[in-house]
Design a protein that fits this description.
about 350 residues, alpha/beta, homodimer, Rossmann fold, 12 helices, DNA-binding, 3 domains
DNA sequence: GGAGTTTTTGGTAGCGCTACCAAAAATATT
DNA sequence: AATATTTTTGGTAGCGCTACCAAAAACTCC
């Protein structure tokens, strides 16, 4: 014969770890739970008198709203996952900064995910973070596994893909025409009269945006009747040291190189600093151009010519596009080209 | 007379937005919902046969676990808020990187919060993120509002405070003795024979760790019979440009300064690069020391002498301490001194 | 074959809040 | 004063999963 079951109100979970709930606040304030919920979330629907009582009870009891329960009840949280390929590259750091600042000011929280340039890892990460019923998602880049694209499209909530612009994106896209940006620097070097122009990068097997810029670079050179195949790369992550190394490798392999288009400013800066140490005069002996627009570029000797990518603004804009969608506004186009600009300085 | 109420099963929320639930998976696999939950979360408690059926159903239906509901049911999520004062300062970026990589590899997600050095904002942020029933929290620094300290202590889950070490911390503390680190550089400069040593910083009204290092610097100098009051600062955030500016201000105000202790490497690097442009020979005319250990320090000409703070490792360690606590292990002490090291290079 | 133990599977109330429906109170209009 | 409308407040089932309790099945030992 079955043992006697506990009465409903005797059957409690998590014995011994009681936290103040909205129910407690309601009892303390002498109102219904839904009135407490309204006082906190839509105060304009509650009379001043009751609002004051609720606020007093919240303070007195030290109540912290359980956003998990609220999220379950309302089918969503104020969390926004931001998925980037790397947290050790300044590009993404500044973008995250722009996103985080904008979202936090709007009362949202950023859930940070890093894929290490692995699309399978990205797919698993997306599945994981969607479990938190976020309000929207911000992804980096347009390259994903088909499963990821299908999942996010089917999900039906706002998705922003940032960094490079493309013609096929899940929901919204903000960034720059990365190939054009590469072509811009290549054109600049050609117009400056350099003839033996190399492209130097690292980790380009994973960083397809750098590959796009190299392809554009190559096209510009070949259209100008120059050799576009001068490519030097290794598998290291981008760093000053990697820039230093690949710079020396390139000059040793091809001493007649008269200009170098670096895949990014970290590499270019590493090269310029090494050139300074070795007495290689930039741009007299070899011109150097970069990509990104790191603030360091303005302080080097010589100051670095670079293509400036508006990273912080990209983050801000991605967040704003998402927030507008969430608020039912359509202030932004679905695809926003932030543009880049060529900062011509002393190194070319 | 009251209108007829909907039957319970006819009364549904969120009409028109059905997502696959664990219940659907259970029906499809022909098992109870709790068996699906077990298959996904504790598979060793489910027979192979049923596990396979569940996995198949998950794939077929494209089920994504609702972590909100799971979090409510189990009184917690696998989210870890990480609260830092700024996302534009490399120090914290590298720490976040260490945290995020370690937590993500352990199946946790980082919720990113930034306080902009405002303790009131920090208090509000803490209240907000606790609402997600996180497993633990990582804070930056030991200075908080009393309300924040009380709240986190009462919360009763793991809390790690990182960056500087102290004697009073909420739960766990990992970092370095920041005053000693400041004293270390000051001692080095004194031992090198410099007599007119200035301390240069920015934003020190907010950055109390920099103030601690200055106080320690001052003590070392005065104990050596030197003038410890040579302090130059402004209110800008730390940047190469700020470093450049405050460097020129200091030299103009006190041309006899023969060494400078910078509050961080960004400032020091800005100064070195400006010195290069203006033909000021470092360390011959003025020695320069920094704090942090930025990788840039090794590439400047002259290479920067600095106190290296293990930032990435600090992040990794903070995350590991939290994870150990969550797993019921006690591999780490509650207070971990990571130590710093003085990297003596060419600039002193 | 039966008793005892362990493993596997299941039922369901509850986690905390809110969407939905509705009642009560207050205000405006006639 | 009565009626109509608007504002404010309330009841409760349900959001999706799981802790807790329990039953069923499988296994071991005698």
């Amino acid at each position: 014969m079955p043992s006697e079951k506990l009465a409903n109100r005797e059957r409690r979970r998590h014995q011994g770890e009681h936290r103040v709930t909205l129910e407690d606040v309601a009892r303390h304030a002498g109102v219904a739970p839904i009135t407490v919920s309204r006082a906190l979330n839509t105060p304009e629907k509650v009379s001043t008198k009751l609002r004051d009582r609720v606020d007093q009870a919240v303070k007195t009891l030290g109540y912290v709203p359980n956003l998990i329960a609220g999220g379950l009840a309302s089918a969503g949280t104020r969390v926004i996952p931001v998925v980037v390929p790397s947290l050790s590259i300044l590009t993404f750091i500044e973008v995250i900064h722009g996103i985080q600042q904008t979202l936090e000011n709007a009362g949202y929280q950023v859930l940070l995910g890093s894929t290490d340039y692995d699309l399978n890892r990205e797919a698993a990460l997306v599945d994981s973070v969607l479990g938190y019923s976020p309000s929207g998602v911000i992804m980096t880049g347009l390259h994903h596994r088909d499963t990821t694209i299908d999942r996010l499209r089917a999900w039906g909530r706002p998705v922003v893909e940032l960094m490079e612009l493309g013609t096929s994106y899940i929901d919204m896209n903000v960034g720059v025409e990365t190939s054009e940006a590469g072509a811009c620097m290549a054109s600049h070097l050609v117009e400056r009269g350099y003839r033996r122009i190399a492209f130097l990068g690292t980790g380009m097997d994973r960083d397809y945006r750098a590959r796009y810029r190299y392809h554009a670079h190559r096209e510009v050179l070949e259209r100008a009747g120059l050799d576009g195949s001068l490519l030097f790369q290794n598998d290291e992550p981008a760093s000053y040291e990697a820039g230093r190394r690949v710079f020396l490798e390139a000059l040793e392999a091809q001493p007649d190189i008269d200009a170098i288009h670096f895949a990014n400013d970290n590499l270019a800066a590493g090269a310029i600093m090494e050139a300074n140490r070795q007495g290689i005069r930039v741009p007299d002996e070899v011109a150097i151009g970069g990509y990104l627009g790191l603030s360091l570029a303005e302080h080097l000797t010589p100051r670095l010519t670079t293509v400036v990518l508006p990273r912080f603004e990209m983050g801000v804009r991605a967040a704003e596009m998402l927030l507008d969608r969430l608020a039912g506004r359509e202030r932004h186009a679905q695809r926003v080209d932030l543009g880049y600009r060529l900062a011509v300085r002393e190194s070319t």
